[in-house]
C-alpha cells in the first residue's frame, strides 16, 4: 500500500486561525442563546376565504372557523419586527366543483424569511358549499307611525316594487318577505323618501346580510290628505205658499268625513246632496239621494245614499189684547199707563197649537229705579213656548209716575 504523506503547513499561524474560528463559533452560539435567543410567539390570524376561486354558480354558506392560531419562532430581534397583518391564512376553492360539506387546508403565507411557522391550528376547515341562486321578490311597504292629527295617508307608491335577490339556495328558501319600513313623524304633507329594503325570514328575523340585492333601497311616495267633517245640506226649488213653512229638515247622515288636498278641503264648508222642488212637499216628505262628492274629494265614511225627511207646517197668526203690568215700582208711587193694554200678534205652527199656554203670555213695563215723572217706556213680553215669533202694538207707551195720594193722606 502506498503511503500518503500529509504535508505540514508551512504557515505557523494556521493553528491560530483554527482557534479563532472555534472561538467565533462559540461566541456566536453564546450571543444567540444568551443575548438574542430563539423564542416562540403565538398569534391569531383571521382566515381569508378566497370565494373568488369558487366555480360559477356556487357559494360558501358556512365555515367552522374564522381564525387560526399560529406559533412562530425566531430570534427576539426578528420576532419584534413581525406585523401580524402581514401573515395571511388563506383557504382556496379552486378544486371545488359540487355542493355539500368539504374539508380544505389552511395555507399560511409568511413574508418573513427568518421567521419559522412552528404550528397551525386548525390546519383544515370544514366549509359548506351551496348553489348560488337568483330570484325576483315583491317588496311590500310597511308604514309605522301616524301623520299629523287631522291628516291621513291616502296611498303610497313604491319604485321599484320588485327586486332581485342573489344568495345560497338554502338561504333563499328561508325568505318570507321583503319589506321597506317607513317611519312617519307627524307629517302633514305628501313626500318622497328613499327607504332601505330588508329581507325577513319566517321567524321575523332580518337576514338581509346573507344576500346581494339588486336594490338596497327603494323610493316610496306617500300621499297625505287633510281631513274634515262637514255638514250635508239640501237646496229647494220654488217657494211654499205664504201660509206654509218648512219647520224641520232631518238628514241621515247629517255630516260626512272627507279628505283631500289642503287647498281643496279648506274651500268646502258644506256639501249639497241635491235639490228638492217645493211643489213635492207634503206635511212629512222623505227623499233619497245617491251620494256624490266634488272632484278630488274622498269620502272617509261608507255613505252611498242620503235620506232627507222634511216637515212642513202652517203658520197661524193670532192677535191677543192683554193688559200691561207694571214691574219694579217703588213703594209710595203709582203709575198711570197710556194705553194700559197692547195687542200682541203671535205666529206659531199649527201643529204646536194645542201645546201653547196662552195664559202665560205677559206684557209689562219695567220702572225699576224710576222716580216721579213722565216716561216713554218699551213694552216687554214674556211669550209661551212654541211661539215662533211675535209683534207688539204699540211698542212704546207713556208712563206717568206720581205719589200715591192715599199714602200721602194717611201720613198727614
UniProtKB/TrEMBL annotation:
The keyword Lipid biosynthesis does not apply. Keywords: Membrane, Transmembrane, Transmembrane helix. It comes from the Bacteria. The keyword Membrane applies. The chain crosses the membrane at residues 14-31. Pfam families: YbbR. This is YbbR family protein. It comes from Caldicellulosiruptor owensensis (strain ATCC 700167 / DSM 13100 / OL).
